[in-house]
Structure formats: C-alpha cells, structure tokens
Amino acid sequence: MSRCLSERRLLNLQAGFGDPREQAHAVACPACAGRLDALTRDLDVLTGVLARGPIPHTRPLPSFRRWLPAAAGAGALGLAALLWVEVAVWRAVTYVPPSMRPEEASAMLTEVSLALFSLRGYAPVPAEASGEPADEDVRVCEGADWLVTAGCAPALLAHAGRVRPAAEESR
Amino acid sequence: MDPAQGYEDAVCCHSGRLRRLCQLLLGDSQEAEEVVQEVFVKALESERRQGPPVDWGPWLTRIAVNTCRDRRRAGWWQRFRRWSDQVEQVPIIDRGLTPEDAAISSETRRRIWLAFRSLPDRQREVFVLRHLEDWSGPEIADALGLSPGTVKRHLFRAVHRMRVVLGDAR
C-alpha cells in the first residue's frame, strides 16, 4: 500500500496544516517531494500572475447584444398582437357586405343603368311584355337606350333614322 | 506589529496591503480605495470604543474581508459587476518582471485571472490570504472565523481549480 500523500494532504502540508509525520514523509519520499515542488511552482506562477498584473481586460459584452433578445422578443410579441387584432377583432367589428353572384350583379347594374339613362322617366318595356313578337331587325331603342340595349349601337340607330338630336329630344 | 502602536501607525503600515487585498477581492481599484477608507473609519471607531486591538494586522484584515463581502452582497454591487464585467489594468504589486513572469503568455494570464474571478467568495478570500498575504492556515481560520477544516476545504478547491486552469493553459 502506497504511503504517498494525496494532493489534498500535500496542499494542507504546504498551507501549514500538515502534521510532523506527513512533513517527514514529504522530505524523505522523492515522489512526494517532487509533487510538493511542482505544487509550489504552480502556486508561485499563480500568485505571480495575480500579484504582478497588469490584469488583462476581459471583453465585456456590448450592451446592444444584451438587449437584442429582448428587442426581438418584444417585436415578435408586437407582431403577434397586431395579427390578432387584425384577425380576431377588426374583422369581427367590420361589416362585410354579402357577395353577389355575377348574374345578379349584372341584372342590378342593368336596372340601375335603365333608371339612370331613361329619358322619359320609366324603363323601356321588354319586347315580350308588349305581346308583339320580337323583331330582331327592328329594335326599340329610345334615346340613349343604345347604351344598355344590345344591337342599339349609335351607328345603327343613325342609319335607321331613329336617333333624334339631343336638343330636339329635350324640347 | 506592536499593539502599543496607535491608529496612525496602523494606517501607515497596513493601508497598502489592505488596498491590494481589497483590489484582489473586488477587482476594482476605486472600490478597493473606498473599502479601505471604510475599514479605517471602522477601526478608528472601534479603537475609541474598545481600545486598540492586540494585533492590528489580522484585525484590520478581518474587517476588510468582511467589508468586501458586504459590498459584494449588496444588490447594486452585483448589478454593477454584471454590467461592467471588466478587470482593471492596474498593477497590484509593483515588482519587477521575473523570467518566469515573462514566460507566461498573456492568454495564460487572462485564463488565470478569469479562473480567479470565477472562484466563490470564500475560496477567493482564503486563497488570497494564504498565497498572496502569506498567512498560515490557522491564521486564516482565526481571522475569518472559520474552522481549520473549512479553510482546508476552501483552499484545496481553490488551488485545485486554479491548477487545472494553469495546466490547461500550458
């Protein structure tokens, strides 16, 4: 069994805590004496560095790097809050008109156009409603009906002598 | 030191040593200066109340170590050290550059200092008193009010950690 001193006992010996028997062993045993010398050399280096200085700078972290994670987190939270307001709150309080089908929209626009551009105050009666058969060649185009009635282009109306000047009509 | 010596002699004899000790424990020369002033104010008040101590050296050292510990425990001190974690470029002991010192690279010195700064307070105090103030283990135990076993344990852990850093740096 080895009677050599452990590192802890060597350090205690070096610090003045060792007993005479350990001290005698450290002197007599070449291995322990060598380890004690190595310990003393290391401690000399350490104390020399600490005592002599100058103490080298440790690089402090720039302050903006410390704030970077917090700023990124705050930005992400803000973005999430904006999205939530847009999706959950804003759409809930905003009136969205019901969407119309294309044929309904077309019919509504046609009615609006007829009402706007009717010169006699009423919409033209469809041909089938009058009880007479529809004639493709002779169309009933009153005034600006050519705007909304297919086949009532101004050129055709002028050719047929059906378009009267606007001044005469107003009279 | 002769106990009969008065307060002024104690200031002259111990101010430099205490400043160095506080600078090692706090890592800041201005703070160390303030702590030394505080230590001597406390010593003066105590001397007027109870008379001079038997031995000024250990008594002043104990006050200095406790004052440094109080300052480190203060909340503002921790915040200050965390936000300005830098060590000063001030020589602690003005002595010539030995060949051994010259052989040590700046990287090794930096590692040793970082390891020293990362030691727990008690380990740092025991290490400084033992290896920079050349106090014996029983003297440290008496000055810090610790048992010899506690001083041994702190000292072993501190030295072991510092030697590991030194071995890695070599």
Helix % of chain B is over 70%
Order of helical and strand elements of chain A: HHHHHHH
Low-pLDDT sequence parts of chain B: 87-91
How many beta-strand runs of chain A?
0
Q: Give the helix/strand class of chain A.
A: mainly alpha
| Greatest chain-chain contact | A-B, 29 and 45 residues
N- and C-termini, Cα separation of chain A: 136 Å
Poorly predicted runs of 5 or more residues of chain A: none
Shape of chain A: rod-shaped
Q: How would you name the oligomeric state of the polypeptide chains in this document? A: heterodimer
Helix content of chain A: 55-70%
SSE topology string of chain B: HHHHHHHHH
Please summarize the sheet with the most strands of chain A: none
Averaged pLDDT of chain A: 73
Let me know the average pLDDT of chain B: 79
Report the span from N to C terminus of chain B.
Answer: 41 Å
* Structural class designation of chain B: mainly alpha
CA-based gyration radius of chain A: 52 Å
Write down how many β-strands of chain B occur, each being a DSSP E stretch of 2 or more residues.
0
Query: Gyration radius of chain B, to the nearest Å?
Result: 17 Å
- What is the strand content of chain B? under 5%
Briefly summarize what is shown:
Chain A has helices spanning 7-14, 20-28, 30-52, 63-93, 102-117, 154-160, 166-170.
Show the helix and strand layout.
The complex is a heterodimer of chains A (171) and B (170).
Chain A: H1 7-14, H2 20-28, H3 30-52, H4 63-93, H5 102-117, H6 154-160, H7 166-170
Chain B: H1 7-26, H2 29-50, H3 56-73, H4 75-83, H5 99-103, H6 106-118, H7 121-132, H8 137-144, H9 148-169
Helix pairs in contact in B: 1-2, 1-3, 2-3, 3-8, 6-9, 7-9, 8-9
Question: Can you describe this structure?
Answer:
The complex is a heterodimer of chains A (171) and B (170). Chain A is mainly α. In chain A, 58% of the residues lie in helices and 0% in strands. Chain A contains seven helices and no strands. Chain A has helices at 7-14, 20-28, 30-52, 63-93, 102-117, 154-160, 166-170. In chain A, helix 2 (20-28) crosses helix 3. The longest helix of chain A is centred in the middle third of the chain and has 31 residues, at 63-93. The termini of chain A are far apart. The mean pLDDT of chain A is 73. Chain B is globular. Helices cover 76% and strands 0% of the residues of chain B. The longest helix of chain B has 22 residues, at 29-50. Chain B is an all-alpha fold and 170 residues long. Chain B contains nine helices and no strands. At the A-B interface, helix 1 and helix 3 of A face helix 6, helix 7 and helix 9 of B.
